[in-house]
Amino acid sequence: MRFSAGEYVCLEGDKANTLYIVKSGMLVGSSKVNEDAPLQNFGPGSIIGEFSLLESEPRELTLRAAEETEIQVIDQDMLQAALEQHPGWFKSILTFLAARNRIAQKNKQKNDLIQALPSLLYIFSAHLQETGADSIPLTLLHKKILALNNTSADETNHLLDSLESLGLLKTVGNHDSEKQVKVESLQIIPLLYDTLRYRALNQKVSPNILSMTEQMVLTTFVKIARENNVPLQNGLCTITTDQLKAEAKKSMHGLTLTSRTIAPLIDKGLLKPSTSFDIHAPLESISFFFADFDRILDLLELNRIFPLLDKNLV
Amino acid sequence: MITGDSRKKVIPPTRSHVKAGFVVYSPDSGKRNIIILDEGELAAIDRSNGLKSTVFKMHPGDLIGVAALLEHETFRYPIEATSDSTITVVTEECMESELKTLPLWMLAVIKSLSSKTRKLKEALHKTRCENTLKSLAEFCSHLEAKKDYALKDLAKEFQWITKIPKPTIQEEFKALARRKFLVLDNKGEETAVRIANPLLLQIFVDYLNATEKGGNWEPFSLDLNQKRLLVKLSAVDQSQEMDAPAWIAFFTAQGLKLDVAGWIRVQQFGWFKPSGDNAFAPNTDKIKYYLAALRYETNIRGVL
What we know:
heterodimer; A: alpha+beta; Arc Repressor Mutant, subunit A; 3 domains; four-stranded antiparallel sheet; 14 strands; B: alpha+beta; Jelly Rolls; 45% helix
């Protein structure tokens, strides 16, 4: 088949079951689905549409002749005729190669998403801290993540959907140009970024990730504060040891609150004792504990979503 | 085209019967064969942790070793017969003889599928960034001004985010330092990074984005009159609000040319922001942005 310069060979999404081989000239491939991707050139010897031939997949690209171009078309009858001249296992090899390519494509997509998460969190955290706002324009986020890590707008939107399903943020607004990505808490995105960075750079779990016991103690602390409308002073909330022990008895499923149970939270600076703390002394020697209430809420939220992150992402 | 003669040159695969427990493939053997299970059952076995565990089972019609044979990618588990089985073994020589009889287009399809898969696998370990300098500039534009950061810590964090190789990161830090966007300060064994003005890095990223698209970048496309307007505008009271005709009259009174078309152009630059009742006030951030771009044009263009 011959095509003049500028003539379309096929459109992206067209139903197809043939393979094109460029014999002479040049075809240019473009995609609307992946608009950020550069145009692809196909010169003599290039083959296009392996999956259309093998699996009747729609065209992945719109192809246009850049100059006078001749192409050879291979259809499924020709494929069948060629396979019949070869042993049966040969077809299995072709099927295997196609399936393996599909798996590699999926792995690459998953990997790209996982790889793009730190970029998104870095840009988002930086914007929240630089501006003091609780949102970022979606177009700005797209632009910056593209510049930082070449992450496409589609991938960014996919990540935002995953984070939205975890309740971390919300995309508001109707038109793309007006959309804003809004966070529920100003600290949770920077906290998540720091936690992932710590794990990646130090090859160990971040101190922000709490044990089940630590989470239970902090949840009890929050419950008491909320149920008793404990007033905050400069963001700090104070709970007496008696209150903590009594509530722990009810809600910590048989776990006894002791100095040893509380010690890791004191070491991490999350709970502060009224007087100097001795792990060997009875808990009653401390009359009350105080803590940065918002920080505790953010940490509990982080610990809720962290185990779900990988699953939700891909 | 395939001819009848070419079939004669084909080396046939070997078919054999194996007893349960027979190892039909061992990674240590160095052999690159395709094994097709005709009857019975095979299993891939993992003994790496001292215990024998089954990775997967193969059923009649399944095959292994295609990647090993076509792409020299070693299959890492031994394959054992879990029951008496019949297998077909396609050796390297057999496959080679079979490939020689293929029409060229089918050979091209096989090569293309293999090569695309290999490239996808290689891409898993590579950076996605095409412009590593732009990527680093974007990263650094979010750092605090005039604060010392340890180079090794920043490089490590940036590498985690982007997968850009360490030597490239070092080079790009030097490239930004040559443009005076940041200072690399050697303090004994540690090198500190200090950002002079994060806005300049953001401007640099925008400039690179525009040049990559092949278009003109607005701050560097201003004519002399527009530059004069910008300088004048930077000197007026930034809280001043006037409607469009009043602004045009203001600039005209200052001896600067500004007609309606010029006003629309200035609006497109974003130098004014609406402030209600058809009034406009100078947009300080945009004015600062354009002034910085013009002032540091040589640094941004890299023609120091």
